[in-house]
Amino acid sequence: MPSSTRLLSGVAPVIGQYELCLCDIWGVVHNGVAPFAAACDALARMRAGGVTVVLVSNAPRPRSEIAVQLGKLGVPGDAFDAIVTSGDVARDLIAHRAGEPLYHLGPSRDLPLMAGLDAPRVGPAEAHYVLCTGLFDDETETAESYAEQLADFARRKLTLICANPDLVVDRGGRIVPCAGSLAVAYEQLGGEAIYAGKPHAPIYDLAIRIGQELRGETVEKARILAIGDAIRTDIAGAAQYGLASLMCVAGIHAGEMAGLSDGALQGWFGRQSHRPDYAMPHLAW
């Protein structure tokens, strides 16, 4: 971990060190309503300079859906080369278990995640592994609602694939539990959970593999830059994987860092679980 974070006003002074950029979407490229024009411009300039840009999201939906969403928001196509989501990673993990019967723990709205895959869905008793996309009813249930079932899976040593590592989500001002809360509860019972999204390794494995395929060459970790706005997912994930990171501080942590001097900002980074290599308010060239 760097001893201090280099504060930047734009990415231009450092991007020459990198060949591949793994960039978060929500909070960096757009705010859920409109794109950040300066960020899109910076990513397009990176690509023009020879950097491959892979957008990386914890959305538990396939990349094709995110591409449609980005188009509707007005994110220009020249801002990225490819998209990888935790949904894609989950599909990749399922594909590696082709033919094995699985139990889908989650709402029916997530069934498209398995579309086209050799993934026979069975009841809990017949399953060889579990795909968890969420709670059946996240408005009324909690992880505790599944304690008995999770304990049975743990006794049988079933692997649980978690398609969305987030613990909770803010839905219209109400905090509701996500698949990550079930995966954590499962691990506390001694079960094995594989997390499809950031900060865990599988999503970086897939994003880097796609980036290298696009470039037609292997890219060393020292030549990869991860960009994001969240310490727990983007910055921690990059650090654990051995990648350099750039944090956009006006994103999810903006309320904590608003008005901090450069010295106070360094102190804030020092109190976190992981420290980014670089930081700037919003991604810009």
TrEMBL record:
<dbReference type="InterPro" id="IPR023214">
    <property type="entry name" value="HAD_sf"/>
</dbReference>
<dbReference type="GO" id="GO:0016791">
    <property type="term" value="F:phosphatase activity"/>
</dbReference>
<keyword id="KW-0378">Hydrolase</keyword>
<dbReference type="InterPro" id="IPR006356">
    <property type="entry name" value="HAD-SF_hydro_IIA_hyp3"/>
</dbReference>
<dbReference type="InterPro" id="IPR036412">
    <property type="entry name" value="HAD-like_sf"/>
</dbReference>
<dbReference type="Pfam" id="PF13344">
    <property type="entry name" value="Hydrolase_6"/>
</dbReference>
<dbReference type="GO" id="GO:0005737">
    <property type="term" value="C:cytoplasm"/>
</dbReference>
<dbReference type="Pfam" id="PF13242">
    <property type="entry name" value="Hydrolase_like"/>
</dbReference>
<dbReference type="InterPro" id="IPR006357">
    <property type="entry name" value="HAD-SF_hydro_IIA"/>
</dbReference>
<protein>
    <submittedName>
        <fullName>HAD-superfamily class IIA hydrolase, TIGR01459</fullName>
    </submittedName>
</protein>
